[in-house]
Amino acid sequence: MSAADASPADLPECPMAESGDRLLPDELRAWMLLLAATGAVEQRLRSVVKETLDVSHDEFLILCLLAERPRSGLRMTQVADLLGRPKTRLTYQIACLQRAGLVSRRSVCGDKRGVEVVLTDRAREQLRETSVLLAGTVRKALADSMGAEQRAALCALVPDLDDS
């Protein structure tokens, strides 16, 4: 089995520098670990999202943003800003989602150039049906990609996280 075929749990632990020998402060080190964990989640989610919702990962992120708005939508500019995506790319992704019947666009009242995007009932139903599977995929990817030291580093970044 090659290193590319191995799951993170099968790979040897990365040697950790002694705390006095570390070049990076704890916050930056934890941020890098968080980015690695996020990458692992995104990699696993890509295929599951494609199989269950038949959308790309980026389109799924748009659906998730809109799902947090009970019945109101978001302006296209807000979606682009929140996802850090170019507006031209977002326009294409929204068009794909609209063709799939998952979002609708409408003009913003009082602003003839403003466009708001809203989830359709069909999208809400599909997200309801798949959310448990998708959440389980996230949990599994995090569990597989993070060891005890990585979890401790992330908890150190936000120490009061487990107090709530």
Automatic annotation (TrEMBL):
Gene3D superfamilies: Winged helix-like DNA-binding domain superfamily/Winged helix DNA-binding domain. Residues 27-163 form the HTH marR-type domain. GO terms for biological process: response to stress. GO terms for molecular function: DNA-binding transcription factor activity. Signal peptide: none annotated. SMART domains: HTH_MARR. Transmembrane segments: none annotated. InterPro entries: ArsR-like_HTH, HTH_MarR-typ, MarR/SlyA-like, TFIIIC_Bblock-bd, WH-like_DNA-bd_sf, WH_DNA-bd_sf. PANTHER family: MARR FAMILY REGULATORY PROTEIN (PTHR33164:SF99), TRANSCRIPTIONAL REGULATOR, MARR FAMILY (PTHR33164). This is MarR family transcriptional regulator. It comes from Streptomyces broussonetiae.
